[in-house]
Amino acid sequence: MNRYATTSRILSVLFIIIMAAGFSTAWAAESDTGYTEEDCIQCHRMGSDESDLHMSVDDFKASVHNGEATCQDCHTGVVDDSHQTTKGSGAVDCSGCHDQENNHGLKAQAGDRPQCYSCHTKHHILAASDPASSVNPKQIPDTCGKCHAAESGKDESYFSWFPGFQIASHPKADFADAYDKDNCMGCHQGAAAHGETEPVNDDTCYKCHSPKMDGAMWGTMHPGATKQSKKSVFAVGVVYQIFIGIALIMVVGMFFRKRS
Length: 260
What we know:
mainly alpha, single chain
């Protein structure tokens, strides 16, 4: 009995040690990760006085990330209170889960390039098939227009009508295709944003209008023409306007000549 009691005591002590070690490990892990999602929301919800950075909880709950990712799954640099004073600790690297590359603005400086959230938003990320999504075809003109006002026809500068005129002159040969000046992705497809080679829709603009062929003779879609930016396009546009003006004068002259 004594031997049995001794063995039982030893096993009990070992059990207590193992449980204590487990609780210590769990506590350490929790302290390393820092916060629960409720903690994050408490500080960063709209109207909170605990942080200057706010998010809409309702928008996040409606997003595709709700239930699929926690705050710290994306904001991996937020591990403890030091994130409050460490610049860039809340930065998000979407490539941790998404394979698509950010191919947008490659010619710009790294700090000036558009980020994923520039198009997809930060927390209200919806499926592209959702009409309310920032990357839904119906929303694309507004999304692209935030940075590309002139190219989206939202800028009233000189020759802002010219790209729309060129696009409206389609189709040139195949009347089975419909072209829309508000359909940015019809021409740019996925290459501009993610470097994808496969078309993202059935539009075939890109087959004729490649960035490599961009120029006055090939039909520049977004001239943004000024004497300083694109002299050749500006010159061609002036010639077009003179030609159209002469044609209108001739039509009006012929009309009054017939009347007389």
